[in-house]
Amino acid sequence: MKLTIFTKIVLVIFLLLVSTLLLYYLTNRSSVRLIKQEIQRVKLNELTFLAGDIDNNLSKVSSFSDFLVLDKDVRLLATPSFLEGDFELNKLKLRVSDKLNLLHALNNWNAEFMVIYDEDSSSFSSTSTSSKLSELYLETHFRPFWQYEQTGDGTYLTYYLAHPYTFRFDPEEVSYVVRAKIDTKNVLAYLDRAKGTNDNSAILLSTAGDVLTSDTEKLPFIHELTSRLDVGKEMSGNRLIKLDGEQYLVNFTALSNFKDWYIADYTPISEVLNPIYANQRLYYFSSVFLLLFSILLALLLYRDVQIPIRKLLWGVRKITSGQYSITLHQESNDEFMYLFERFNEMSKEIKELIERVYMEQIRSKEAKLRQLHSQIQPHFLYNSLAFIKSMTELDEKQAVIDMSISLSRYFRQTIKFENTYTTVRDELELVRLYLTIQSLQMDRFIFTIDVEEQLLDIQVPRLLLQPLAENAILHGIESLRMVGDIRIRGYSNGEYCELIVADNGCGVEPGRLDTLRNAIYYGADANTAWALHNVYERMRAMLGSEANMELSNGDLGGFQVTLRWKVVREQEATEIC
């Protein structure tokens, strides 16, 4: 179905609106995605920094514990029997207490350090608290990493080291234990200070379901949110969790020194995207307005453009049907008025122009045929007369008779110029006479003609095959030292016809085939294959644009020319003539 200009304009407007909406939708979706990704990246970077800072503080406290467990005064205090009197013992205890107090003051989270001895269940602490080795439950609490402990007076992060330093599992071998303990309130206070301008501070959560947060009012909500967070085996990442109709972006990262614990934060997506959604609603409102405006514009185009174009199309159809006196009228004073006036003038002159062009084409085709004929005849006639003269001198009467008869029949065929078309049958008879004359002159080649019967009555231009036969003799057979062979074959499938002229000459080098094709198809070289170019041009002009000439090296070993065209019926040929 053909589309009118008005329909195309409406489609263009519609496509512009749709493409604009689609582009905005994709851009908006891309922007939302990028904002989410940026939020994820920024939040994850903040969490990574906080996790690193927490790990650094825990590592610092752990290193203090390592220092204590290997300290010589702490180790010496485990064996008081080696000391000389109570004065030395008290002096040693004072030094150990000073060291514990110093380490307590040096860390940022007010970590409490305690050394607990086995021999007399004595203990030294950086604070006023004390404990006994039997109360530590080493089988449960003793691990080579920080742990979370809940006691009656609060929750803590604890880290245990024992002497001997290589101790891991056997409590019976312990001589003393160093414990570092950090109140979780100090950690949460640090996280609360680190949140800056954010509405929500970071939270600590464990794979066991424990949650530490400074925002106690939101603790039930945070418990519900973190219960839906499945971190799997990831060390860091983020999740989109929907809770109570709201989407939250939850970022998390693992703490390397606090096993099975993560630091996380959450951000409501709506807080970030609400301005974008407001712009989106404004854009959709503007799109509806543009759609209504486009409909109004389309109606104006229909009145001022589509209707005048329809009148022009109606006039063109009338001219196509042969009504050249048609006139058009336009009431408006615009560009279409000018077009209608020019159209009316054109319709008066177009008939004469068509007749002049048609007659010129006929004269051009006849001129080309006569030009080709005038090129063929003199050279061929001179050779034939020279042969008759030679045979007469040799008293070869029969050869003279055969040549004279063939020559007379040949020229009787070639001088029929009242019609530029002939049948394949007559064209083959002309070629047969031509090859007979040439074989009498050269006496060193044979020829065969094998054309299907259904092809013989098809109309073709005159002198279609004779230039091909002459080309086969001059460029294929003449230079051979053996008997030449020229074969002419013809096939037809009812719609397309083929005539093939092949010889057993030397053929053409593959590189030269392209040069010949250019010379024949485009007339690239006036001195190369001029006759073949003439045949090709007449085929295209008289048998249609689908007619073609193919050049190749054939099965006989020599050059082969294939003519292919769509069948032109006798009635159609008569109309063309």
Kindly summarize this structure in a few lines.
A hairpin with a 5-residue loop joins strand 1 and strand 2 (123-125). This protein has helices at 5-70, 72-77, 85-106, 138-141, 184-194, 219-227, 269-320, 335-393, 397-414, 424-442, 466-477, 510-522, 530-543, 570-576, and strands spanning 112-117, 123-125, 147-151, 154-163, 176-183, 203-206, 211-212, 236-243, 246-254, 261-268, 421-423, 445-451, 459-461, 484-492, 496-503, 548-553, 559-566.
Overview of this protein structure:
The chain has helices spanning 5-70, 72-77, 85-106, 138-141, 184-194, 219-227, 269-320, 335-393, 397-414, 424-442, 466-477, 510-522, 530-543, 570-576, and strands at 112-117, 123-125, 147-151, 154-163, 176-183, 203-206, 211-212, 236-243, 246-254, 261-268, 421-423, 445-451, 459-461, 484-492, 496-503, 548-553, 559-566. By secondary structure, the protein is of the alpha+beta class. The chain is elongated. A hairpin with a 2-residue loop joins β3 (147-151) and β4. It folds into two domains: 31-272, no CATH class; 355-576, Heat Shock Protein 90 (2-Layer Sandwich). It contains 14 helices and 17 strands. The strands form four sheets. It has a five-stranded antiparallel β-sheet.
